[in-house]
Amino acid sequence: MPRQQRAHGQQSFADLTLVDLGGPRTAATLARLDAAVPWDKLVTPIRALPEYAKYVEDPTRPGQRPIDPLVMVKAMMLQKWYGLSDPQAEEQLKDRISFRRFVGLAQDDPTPDETTFVVFRARLRAAGLDRTIFDAVLAHVERQGLLVKRGTVVDATIVEQARGTKTGAKDERGHDRTTRDPGASFTKKHGRSYHGYKLHAAVDQGSAIVTDLVTSTAKDHDSQHIDALVERERRAVFADSAYSDDGRRARLSARGVLPGICYKRVRGQAELTPFQKKFNRLVAKLRAAGEHPFAWMRRLMNFTRCRYRGLRRNGFDFTLTAAAYNLKRAASLLAAAARRGPARAAT
Fold it and tell me: pTM for the whole thing?
C-alpha cells in the first residue's frame, strides 16, 4: 500500500510513542469537529474526479498516487478554521501532532506541501466542487435539525484586496500598468474607500447558519443579489435599509413572506415616521444573526483580506470559508444543546 494510503487507521511505532503528546484543548476541539463532520459526503465527489478515480478503478496502476482527498479536505478545513495560508498549513502539519492526527497522517507520512494545496484547490475549482461541498454541509446541518427556519437574514460584507502598485510600464492604450487585481473594484462605505470583493449571504435567523451566498465585485450594491438569495424563503426576510424597496416588500408580501426590511428616508421625506422608526428598531434586533457569521469569520478565521486574485478564485475561497464556518457553528450548537440536556432532565 502506498505511504499516502497507509495513514488511515494504521499506526507506526512513532505514532505509538507520541500517543499522549499534543495540546489537549486543541485535540478535544478537533475531536468534536471530526465527529460532527460528514467527511464521506464531502470526499465522495472528489474521489470521483479522474485524478483519483483511476486509482480506485485500478489499484495496481503504476505512478505516484495523489494524497488521499480525505487528508486534503481535512487539511483545507484546518486552514479555514485557523486562518492558515498554504505555507503555514504545511508548517503546522509538520509541527503539530494534533493537526497530523486530525487529518489522518502518521508521523512518517509525507506532509502535503504548498504546491499540493494549490493543485488540490485548482482541481476542486475546475470541477465546481466548492458549491457541492457547501450544499453537502448545509444538508448535513439541516438533517441534524439545527436550522430554526424562522426567517432569513440577508447581509453583505466587503473583503478587501491589495490595491497593487504601478509597474512603470504602459499598456497598449498608454495607461499605467499595475499589479492590481483586474477583477476587484472600488466602493465607498461610510465615507471610506474600499477595494476588493463582496460576500452576500443569506443566514438562518435562529441559528446563524449561512444558507446561501453570492460573491461579487465590491461595486455591486448590496440589494443587487437579495432577491436570488431569498427566493426559497417562505416565512420572513430581514435586512437593513440598504435593501429598502417598496416593490421588493410588495413581492415578498404577495408570496406570503414577512418583509422585515428596514425603512430609509425617500426623496422629500425629512425623517422617518414613528412607525418606521419603531419597525426599524424591531428588525435591527432580529437581523443581528446576519452579522454573526461575518464577525466570526473575521475574528476567529482570519477572514479579513482576499487571499487570491480574480472573482472565481475568491468566490471559491469565500464558499469554502462559509462551509467551514457552518461546520464549526453546527458543532457549537450541538455542544450547547448537549450542555443544556442534563439541566433539562434535572428539572
Answer: 0.88
